[in-house]
Design brief:
The protein is an alpha/beta fold. It contains six helices and eight strands, in the order E-E-H-E-E-H-E-H-E-E-H-E-H-H. The longest helix has 19 residues.
């Protein structure tokens, strides 16, 4: 049976998934890259999953509230600012996912831009969605050779009262994420 470790940052993002032929484990990582990396690494050492799925909320600049993106490419916007030092600031998890045949039909690909700040003003960033944890989790999984994917529900448009909109849209996000995974589960039957 497939062992899937599901991560989420805050309890208000939690959705209990229905996944045929999978043993599901959940870990709340907390907000931010350091907490996310630490708590995920700890959970991986305990669970030894075949796949890690991150689900949660995100902001956007170019898309709409309610959009759902499946992210397999991640950018660390904090490290990107000092890319001239030769530091890696991008990760793609597609190769390992494809090799294992995981999440290949999930659709609506997006790029997740991660940083340790909640963006509230328009800025020059690359990606479809922004969050505060996914890059760190992708990094941990890459180092441990565990397939990783992140499913993000857009709760707010950056520059339009993002913090308030995020809090107001958490219930919508839970429903949107539940529906996304429900449809996937029904298709796999």
């Amino acid at each position: 049976m497939l062992k899937v470790l599901v991560t989420f940052a805050v309890k208000d993002e939690f959705v209990e998934l229905q996944w045929t032929d999978a043993e599901l484990y959940y870990v709340r990582t907390g907000i931010g890259k350091v907490k996310a990396a630490f708590r995920l690494a700890d959970a991986i050492n305990q669970v030894h999953p075949d796949l890690v799925v991150n689900m949660g909320t995100a902001g956007t600049i170019t898309h709409r509230v309610g959009d759902v993106f499946v992210c397999r490419r991640f950018i660390d916007r904090d490290v990107q600012k000092i890319k001239d030092l030769g530091l890696d600031f991008e990760i793609s998890t597609s190769t390992l996912l494809d090799a294992k045949g995981f999440c290949t039909e999930w659709g609506n690909d997006g790029v997740c831009n991660t940083g340790d700040s909640f963006l509230t003003e328009l800025t020059d960033i690359e990606g479809d969605v922004v969050d505060m944890e996914a890059f760190a989790q992708a990094f941990v999984c890459q180092e441990k050779q565990i397939p990783f994917v992140s499913v993000k529900y857009v709760t707010d448009v950056i520059g339009q009262n993002s913090v308030t909109h995020w809090a107001e849209k958490l219930a919508d996000a839970r429903k949107g994420l539940f529906d996304f995974f429900y449809v996937l589960n029904e298709r796999s039957r």
